[in-house]
Known about the structure:
Elements: E1 12-15, E2 19-24, E3 36-41, H1 43-53, E4 58-65, H2 68-79, E5 87-90, E6 97-103, E7 106-112, H3 131-137, E8 140-144, H4 145-150, H5 152-163, E9 170-174, H6 190-195, E10 199-203, H7 204-211, H8 216-222, E11 228-233, E12 237-242, E13 245-250, E14 253-254, H9 262-275, H10 280-295, H11 307-314, H12 318-322, E15 325-327, E16 330-332
Parallel strand pairs: 1-4, 1-8, 2-6, 4-5, 8-9, 9-10, 10-11, 14-15
Antiparallel strand pairs: 2-3, 6-7, 11-12, 12-13, 15-16
Amino acid sequence: MEGTRSGNPGTAVCVGETMAVLLPERPGPLEDVPSFRHSSGGAEANVARGLVALGVPAAWVGRVGDDGFGSRVLRDLAAGGVDVRGASVDPERPTGLYVKEAGPSGSVLHYYRDGSAGSAIGPGMLDDPATGPLLADARLVHLSGITAALSDSALALTRALLARPRGDRLVSFDLNWRPALWRRRDPAVLRPLLDAADIVMLGADEATAVLGTAEPDALRALLPGPSVLVIKDDAHQATAVTRDGTVTEPALNVEVVEPIGAGDAFAAGYLAGTLRGYGPRRRLRLGHLAAAATLVVPGDHGPPPPPGPVEALLSASPDAWAGTTVSASGITSPVEETTS
Length: 340
């Protein structure tokens, strides 16, 4: 039977790069957009914010520049409830930036991150008086393949975190395949990094690109180390391959507004369920619910549904789950408590 352990799930620490974001006030080519609004984003920061929204204490560890963008990043994360005591300010390098271009075929992200403060993270952070204790006391450390691609020092930090004695700490690793980041680096380093984690999350398309297969049994043969592999098949389903077997849970019906950020939201939901002691199926469902809440908003993260509807859907029958639709106006479901 799947458990639902209550109580404090412990602190999660997400390590990586957070960038400033410029979002267009209206769709169209960048050269025709009259104005942009400020925001901040990055895979690990999105996961930290998602965990906090789901009631899991979370911190972000990384570097920002000594500039207005860096100040905005730290302010946004702190306003979202994320602990930023482990963040440091680089006096020489700028904060990374990405600009979203919205068009009829979807959004395109333009990155300006070469030589950024975020790429300068390294193993020395483990001995930092602020960062070191956060990482040492974490119940979960979350990493991604983006960090491993940023620089030699960021790769060294990723390896060091995966090599540290675990105790009861979990390390999760989201592949987050970004081909552009690996053009000048060797992606062969990713397989041993993935295999050294406890929880691995990867999209089916990412798995095919990096490991040559998205088939669960073949991935398990390639990655025997993790206790669970979570394979996300876009809008269709997610599969957890554990040592006890394989569990697949279909995605919800979602009226999508913007797909960017949904993968990070899924990771936050799945990890929150893990830290709460949920069984495999409930973890996958919480991931789907968190992703759906982000898919129906224009930004990179959306507020999670209220606890009542979430709990009802986590326990819903397969038919009721399959009959649930999430849209910007709310959730419509055969489960009475979730209809809005």
